[in-house]
């Protein structure tokens, strides 16, 4: 961890850098200034947190944001995130404002007076760190490639390896190493509104058979850069057919499929009207539907983090490169069964197929949770 130089407001740049709007006079480029960190936490009244990332990591930052609110109870906390994913943080009681930012838009923002006492930036996006420096009196961020930029920070944090600690704990290291806070990492959080719950119930009444029960949600693919986490669609088909034999009135809800999804076609051919494909939904609409499920079955991908935050009964499958207990930080661990690939992590690579997780094990886990939730 590298601490910034103390003292009065001072410029840390020698030669002017070409950053931000070119018409801005160098003397007014607020990102070049650093201020002392106040010893009294009560002096910190406005905090900015920036985490521009995928769905899962956005959900996983919620324990850190909650800990930040507990450490600075008098402060208002605003969060900026990915334009398509930050909505998963809306309505959390410890956040004042949630809005979007991108690396591109960050270059043109924050050129007025500073409005924040403290900013924290996760990730390696230099544009976001420069925006934070223009917007806050002091900034804590992950160490950047630029030594000059790191020198402007209150703390440039070298995050430890995430191989042996949970991802939520890993994210909390920015607070622990950068601010010296003792963070007790708890479960992830998600907040649904009453209107969202009403919408979900109405949606299900319109699209599902009246006597459908149990309702089982499916996420059958991850994102293309992590295809080694995908479980064979034939295995999903076998599980669904087995569950329908055991629960004849079961209805399946496929979440996150697109129009050209061949995997959805396989399940549709097997299940017919027993499968509904939920398309063109926002993240919050998808989460609202997930909250109505009797069971969620998914992979190591974003919606599984939402399910963990909602606390619904869930079975999640994990590749041997990262075990489930290092991925999820569930709200209700007693309602979660994680099935890890049997290959030892030391012998694992992206070429190891998820097919080694037997469908029979998945059926058994699903039945165990369904029997509990329906009893």
Ranges where pLDDT stays below 50 over 5 or more residues in a row are: 1-30
- The CATH superfamily of the largest domain is Glycogen Phosphorylase B
**Which structural class should the secondary elements be placed in?**
alpha/beta
Strand content: 15-25%
Return the CATH class of the largest domain: Alpha Beta
Q: Which bin fits the share of residues in helices? A: 25-40%
Please, what is the oligomeric state?
Answer: single chain
Note the main sheet.
Answer: 7 strands, mixed
Number of domains: 2
Tell the overall outline: globular
Q: Short summary of the structure?
A:
The protein contains 12 helices and 15 strands.
Tell me what the structure shows.
This protein is of the alpha/beta class and 375 residues long. 43% of the residues are buried. A 7-stranded mixed sheet has the order 1-9-8-7-4-5-6. It has a 6-stranded parallel sheet with strand order 12-11-10-13-14-15, with helices on both faces. Strands 2-3 form a two-stranded antiparallel sheet. The longest helix has 16 residues. It folds into 2 domains: 160 residues, Glycogen Phosphorylase B (Rossmann fold); 181 residues, 3-Layer(aba) Sandwich (Rossmann fold). The N terminus is likely disordered. The chain is built from 12 helices and 15 strands. It is globular, with a radius of gyration of 23 Å. α2 runs parallel beside α6 and α8 runs parallel beside α12.
